[in-house]
Amino acid sequence: MKNIVLTRIDDRLIHGQVVTSWVKQTGGNKIVVIDDALTKDIFMQKILKAAAPPDVKVEVMTVSGAAEYLNADPEANEKVIILVKVPQTLESLIAEGVSLQKIILGGMGAKEGREKFNRNVSASADEIDSMKRMIKNGTDMYFQLVPTEAVVDVKKLLHLQG
Amino acid sequence: MVKVIVVSHGDYSRALIESSQLIMGELSDVTAFGFYLGESIGDLRQKIETEIQKIQSAGPDDEILVLTDMKSGSPFNVVAMLMQDYAFHHLAGTNLPIFLEIMGTRDFCSVQELCEMATTEGKETIVNVNKMMEEL
Description:
By secondary structure, chain A is of the alpha/beta class. Chain A has helices at about 15-25, 40-50, 65-70, 85-95, 125-135, 155, and strands at about 5-10, 30-35, 55-60, 80-85, 100-105, 115-120, 120-125, 140-145, 150-155. Chain B is of the alpha/beta class.
Protein backbone atom coordinates (compact mmCIF):
# COMPACT_ATOMS: atom_id res chain seq x y z
CA MET A 1 0.00 0.00 0.00
CA LYS A 2 1.13 3.56 -0.75
CA ASN A 3 2.45 5.79 2.02
CA ILE A 4 -0.58 8.00 2.76
CA VAL A 5 0.28 10.95 5.01
CA LEU A 6 -3.10 12.69 4.93
CA THR A 7 -6.65 11.89 3.85
CA ARG A 8 -8.75 15.03 3.79
CA ILE A 9 -12.33 15.93 2.89
CA ASP A 10 -12.35 19.50 1.57
CA ASP A 11 -14.53 20.67 -1.29
CA ARG A 12 -12.06 23.44 -2.13
CA LEU A 13 -9.41 20.74 -2.79
CA ILE A 14 -6.03 22.45 -3.29
CA HIS A 15 -6.07 25.91 -1.67
CA GLY A 16 -4.33 28.06 0.93
CA GLN A 17 -4.77 25.86 4.02
CA VAL A 18 -3.62 22.78 2.15
CA VAL A 19 -0.64 24.37 0.44
CA THR A 20 0.70 26.53 3.27
CA SER A 21 0.00 24.19 6.20
CA TRP A 22 -0.75 20.57 5.36
CA VAL A 23 1.80 20.02 2.62
CA LYS A 24 4.54 21.48 4.83
CA GLN A 25 3.54 19.63 8.00
CA THR A 26 3.08 16.22 6.37
CA GLY A 27 5.93 16.51 3.89
CA GLY A 28 3.51 15.30 1.23
CA ASN A 29 4.98 15.37 -2.27
CA LYS A 30 2.09 13.92 -4.22
CA ILE A 31 -1.52 15.05 -4.11
CA VAL A 32 -4.11 12.58 -5.35
CA VAL A 33 -7.46 14.22 -5.99
CA ILE A 34 -10.15 11.57 -6.19
CA ASP A 35 -13.21 12.71 -8.14
CA ASP A 36 -14.75 10.82 -11.05
CA ALA A 37 -16.12 13.98 -12.74
CA LEU A 38 -12.81 15.86 -12.53
CA THR A 39 -10.97 13.13 -14.41
CA LYS A 40 -12.88 14.34 -17.51
CA ASP A 41 -12.30 18.05 -16.87
CA ILE A 42 -8.93 18.96 -18.37
CA PHE A 43 -9.31 22.66 -17.58
CA MET A 44 -9.90 22.03 -13.85
CA GLN A 45 -6.95 19.64 -13.79
CA LYS A 46 -4.75 22.47 -15.09
CA ILE A 47 -5.99 24.74 -12.29
CA LEU A 48 -5.29 22.06 -9.67
CA LYS A 49 -1.77 21.64 -11.00
CA ALA A 50 -1.24 25.42 -11.03
CA ALA A 51 -2.49 25.71 -7.45
CA ALA A 52 -0.07 23.11 -6.06
CA PRO A 53 3.48 24.01 -4.99
CA PRO A 54 5.97 23.42 -7.84
CA ASP A 55 7.60 20.39 -6.16
CA VAL A 56 4.31 18.58 -5.48
CA LYS A 57 2.88 16.28 -8.15
CA VAL A 58 -0.86 16.33 -8.69
CA GLU A 59 -2.92 13.51 -10.13
CA VAL A 60 -6.68 13.34 -10.56
CA MET A 61 -8.09 9.82 -10.33
CA THR A 62 -11.42 8.03 -10.40
CA VAL A 63 -12.35 6.05 -7.29
CA SER A 64 -11.44 2.74 -8.89
CA GLY A 65 -8.24 4.15 -10.40
CA ALA A 66 -7.24 5.50 -6.99
CA ALA A 67 -8.03 2.19 -5.26
CA GLU A 68 -5.74 0.37 -7.65
CA TYR A 69 -3.00 2.98 -7.30
CA LEU A 70 -3.18 3.22 -3.48
CA ASN A 71 -3.17 -0.53 -2.94
CA ALA A 72 -0.08 -1.03 -5.07
CA ASP A 73 3.41 -1.15 -3.53
CA PRO A 74 4.75 2.15 -2.13
CA GLU A 75 7.29 4.10 -4.14
CA ALA A 76 10.47 5.24 -2.42
CA ASN A 77 10.21 8.72 -0.87
CA GLU A 78 6.64 9.17 -2.05
CA LYS A 79 4.24 10.72 0.48
CA VAL A 80 0.66 10.84 -0.68
CA ILE A 81 -2.00 13.35 0.29
CA ILE A 82 -5.53 12.28 -0.64
CA LEU A 83 -8.09 15.02 -1.27
CA VAL A 84 -11.80 14.48 -1.91
CA LYS A 85 -14.73 16.88 -2.04
CA VAL A 86 -17.31 14.77 -0.20
CA PRO A 87 -17.31 11.88 2.30
CA GLN A 88 -19.07 9.48 -0.08
CA THR A 89 -15.95 9.36 -2.26
CA LEU A 90 -13.93 7.97 0.65
CA GLU A 91 -16.70 5.53 1.51
CA SER A 92 -16.52 4.19 -2.07
CA LEU A 93 -12.74 4.03 -1.80
CA ILE A 94 -13.00 1.94 1.38
CA ALA A 95 -15.58 -0.27 -0.37
CA GLU A 96 -13.02 -0.83 -3.14
CA GLY A 97 -10.65 -2.25 -0.54
CA VAL A 98 -8.50 0.72 0.50
CA SER A 99 -7.87 0.77 4.23
CA LEU A 100 -8.13 4.28 5.69
CA GLN A 101 -7.40 4.60 9.42
CA LYS A 102 -7.91 8.31 9.86
CA ILE A 103 -9.78 10.98 7.91
CA ILE A 104 -9.45 14.72 8.41
CA LEU A 105 -12.59 16.70 7.75
CA GLY A 106 -11.41 20.12 6.61
CA GLY A 107 -14.23 22.00 4.98
CA MET A 108 -17.43 21.75 3.03
CA GLY A 109 -18.96 25.05 1.94
CA ALA A 110 -22.52 26.15 2.57
CA LYS A 111 -24.88 25.51 -0.32
CA GLU A 112 -28.47 24.54 -0.99
CA GLY A 113 -29.37 21.21 0.60
CA ARG A 114 -26.59 21.47 3.17
CA GLU A 115 -26.86 22.54 6.79
CA LYS A 116 -24.04 23.96 8.84
CA PHE A 117 -22.85 21.55 11.52
CA ASN A 118 -19.45 22.87 12.47
CA ARG A 119 -17.17 25.81 11.75
CA ASN A 120 -16.34 25.67 8.02
CA VAL A 121 -18.43 22.53 7.48
CA SER A 122 -21.92 22.26 6.07
CA ALA A 123 -23.30 18.89 5.06
CA SER A 124 -26.39 17.33 3.50
CA ALA A 125 -28.27 14.44 5.10
CA ASP A 126 -26.59 12.01 2.67
CA GLU A 127 -23.14 13.35 3.48
CA ILE A 128 -23.80 13.05 7.22
CA ASP A 129 -25.06 9.48 6.82
CA SER A 130 -21.92 8.59 4.89
CA MET A 131 -19.68 9.98 7.63
CA LYS A 132 -21.66 8.11 10.29
CA ARG A 133 -21.30 4.80 8.42
CA MET A 134 -17.54 5.18 8.05
CA ILE A 135 -17.11 6.04 11.73
CA LYS A 136 -19.29 3.09 12.79
CA ASN A 137 -17.18 0.82 10.61
CA GLY A 138 -14.05 1.85 12.50
CA THR A 139 -12.51 4.81 10.66
CA ASP A 140 -11.45 7.70 12.87
CA MET A 141 -12.60 11.10 11.66
CA TYR A 142 -11.48 14.45 13.01
CA PHE A 143 -12.31 18.01 12.12
CA GLN A 144 -9.15 20.04 11.76
CA LEU A 145 -8.71 23.10 9.56
CA VAL A 146 -4.92 23.32 9.85
CA PRO A 147 -2.43 20.99 11.59
CA THR A 148 -1.53 23.48 14.33
CA GLU A 149 -5.12 23.50 15.54
CA ALA A 150 -6.54 20.96 18.04
CA VAL A 151 -8.58 18.14 16.48
CA VAL A 152 -12.30 17.74 17.17
CA ASP A 153 -13.68 14.21 17.04
CA VAL A 154 -16.41 14.14 14.37
CA LYS A 155 -18.05 11.31 16.33
CA LYS A 156 -18.90 13.91 18.99
CA LEU A 157 -20.04 16.47 16.44
CA LEU A 158 -22.44 13.89 15.02
CA HIS A 159 -23.58 12.85 18.53
CA LEU A 160 -22.62 9.21 18.02
CA GLN A 161 -22.20 6.88 21.00
CA GLY A 162 -18.83 5.52 22.10
CA MET B 1 -8.93 52.36 -18.92
CA VAL B 2 -8.35 48.85 -17.68
CA LYS B 3 -11.07 47.88 -15.20
CA VAL B 4 -9.72 46.09 -12.12
CA ILE B 5 -11.25 43.50 -9.79
CA VAL B 6 -9.37 42.36 -6.68
CA VAL B 7 -10.19 39.01 -5.06
CA SER B 8 -8.65 37.82 -1.80
CA HIS B 9 -8.91 35.80 1.36
CA GLY B 10 -11.00 37.88 3.79
CA ASP B 11 -10.74 41.66 3.84
CA TYR B 12 -7.32 41.95 2.21
CA SER B 13 -8.75 43.07 -1.16
CA ARG B 14 -10.88 45.82 0.38
CA ALA B 15 -8.03 46.94 2.62
CA LEU B 16 -5.65 46.98 -0.35
CA ILE B 17 -7.89 49.50 -2.09
CA GLU B 18 -8.43 51.56 1.07
CA SER B 19 -4.72 51.64 1.89
CA SER B 20 -3.88 52.60 -1.68
CA GLN B 21 -6.26 55.52 -1.45
CA LEU B 22 -4.11 56.92 1.39
CA ILE B 23 -1.35 57.19 -1.18
CA MET B 24 -3.20 57.84 -4.45
CA GLY B 25 -6.46 59.45 -3.36
CA GLU B 26 -9.90 58.27 -4.41
CA LEU B 27 -9.84 55.32 -6.83
CA SER B 28 -12.62 54.38 -9.22
CA ASP B 29 -13.26 51.44 -11.54
CA VAL B 30 -11.86 48.96 -9.05
CA THR B 31 -13.94 46.53 -6.99
CA ALA B 32 -13.02 44.08 -4.24
CA PHE B 33 -14.35 40.66 -3.27
CA GLY B 34 -13.36 38.63 -0.21
CA PHE B 35 -13.64 34.93 0.51
CA TYR B 36 -14.58 34.02 4.08
CA LEU B 37 -14.39 30.76 6.03
CA GLY B 38 -17.39 28.48 5.53
CA GLU B 39 -18.55 30.33 2.43
CA SER B 40 -19.05 28.28 -0.72
CA ILE B 41 -16.76 29.02 -3.63
CA GLY B 42 -19.88 28.94 -5.81
CA ASP B 43 -21.16 32.10 -4.12
CA LEU B 44 -17.85 33.87 -4.62
CA ARG B 45 -17.79 32.81 -8.25
CA GLN B 46 -21.29 34.19 -8.75
CA LYS B 47 -20.34 37.61 -7.33
CA ILE B 48 -17.26 37.95 -9.51
CA GLU B 49 -19.13 36.69 -12.57
CA THR B 50 -21.83 39.34 -12.06
CA GLU B 51 -19.17 42.05 -11.82
CA ILE B 52 -17.43 40.87 -15.01
CA GLN B 53 -20.75 40.85 -16.86
CA LYS B 54 -21.53 44.34 -15.56
CA ILE B 55 -18.21 45.71 -16.83
CA GLN B 56 -18.61 43.95 -20.17
CA SER B 57 -22.10 45.28 -20.78
CA ALA B 58 -21.18 48.85 -19.72
CA GLY B 59 -18.15 48.96 -22.02
CA PRO B 60 -17.69 46.01 -24.38
CA ASP B 61 -14.21 47.28 -25.35
CA ASP B 62 -12.95 47.68 -21.80
CA GLU B 63 -10.16 45.37 -20.77
CA ILE B 64 -10.49 43.59 -17.45
CA LEU B 65 -7.70 42.67 -15.06
CA VAL B 66 -8.50 40.43 -12.10
CA LEU B 67 -5.93 40.44 -9.30
CA THR B 68 -5.82 37.63 -6.74
CA ASP B 69 -3.86 37.60 -3.48
CA MET B 70 -1.83 34.45 -4.09
CA LYS B 71 -1.44 31.51 -6.39
CA SER B 72 -2.88 28.41 -4.66
CA GLY B 73 -5.77 29.95 -2.80
CA SER B 74 -9.51 29.59 -3.25
CA PRO B 75 -9.76 33.15 -4.66
CA PHE B 76 -7.13 32.13 -7.23
CA ASN B 77 -8.96 28.86 -7.99
CA VAL B 78 -12.31 30.57 -8.51
CA VAL B 79 -10.87 33.25 -10.81
CA ALA B 80 -8.90 30.62 -12.73
CA MET B 81 -12.14 28.67 -13.28
CA LEU B 82 -13.83 31.80 -14.66
CA MET B 83 -11.06 32.10 -17.27
CA GLN B 84 -12.73 29.22 -19.08
CA ASP B 85 -15.87 31.29 -19.70
CA TYR B 86 -14.72 34.93 -19.84
CA ALA B 87 -11.94 36.85 -21.53
CA PHE B 88 -9.87 38.75 -18.95
CA HIS B 89 -6.35 38.83 -17.55
CA HIS B 90 -5.54 37.24 -14.20
CA LEU B 91 -2.56 38.18 -12.10
CA ALA B 92 -1.83 36.31 -8.85
CA GLY B 93 0.29 37.47 -5.92
CA THR B 94 -0.71 41.12 -5.75
CA ASN B 95 0.99 43.33 -3.19
CA LEU B 96 0.68 47.04 -2.44
CA PRO B 97 3.51 48.30 -4.70
CA ILE B 98 2.29 46.23 -7.66
CA PHE B 99 -1.26 47.38 -7.09
CA LEU B 100 -0.21 51.04 -6.91
CA GLU B 101 1.80 50.66 -10.12
CA ILE B 102 -1.18 49.13 -11.91
CA MET B 103 -3.58 51.80 -10.67
CA GLY B 104 -1.15 54.53 -11.68
CA THR B 105 -0.49 53.34 -15.21
CA ARG B 106 -3.71 51.65 -16.33
CA ASP B 107 -4.93 54.84 -18.08
CA PHE B 108 -2.29 54.53 -20.77
CA CYS B 109 -1.14 50.88 -20.64
CA SER B 110 -2.83 47.85 -22.15
CA VAL B 111 -3.73 45.00 -19.85
CA GLN B 112 -0.91 42.91 -21.39
CA GLU B 113 1.58 45.66 -20.60
CA LEU B 114 0.32 45.85 -17.01
CA CYS B 115 0.74 42.11 -16.54
CA GLU B 116 4.16 42.14 -18.13
CA MET B 117 5.28 44.99 -15.90
CA ALA B 118 3.89 43.37 -12.75
CA THR B 119 5.57 40.03 -13.37
CA THR B 120 8.96 41.49 -14.25
CA GLU B 121 9.26 44.58 -12.04
CA GLY B 122 7.02 43.10 -9.35
CA LYS B 123 9.83 40.91 -8.04
CA GLU B 124 11.84 44.03 -7.24
CA THR B 125 9.15 45.19 -4.82
CA ILE B 126 10.25 42.52 -2.33
CA VAL B 127 13.44 43.62 -0.66
CA ASN B 128 15.69 42.18 2.03
CA VAL B 129 16.42 45.56 3.62
CA ASN B 130 19.33 44.30 5.79
CA LYS B 131 21.12 43.07 2.71
CA MET B 132 20.30 46.22 0.78
CA MET B 133 21.77 48.38 3.58
CA GLU B 134 24.98 46.37 3.56
CA GLU B 135 25.35 46.93 -0.15
CA LEU B 136 24.71 50.66 -0.05
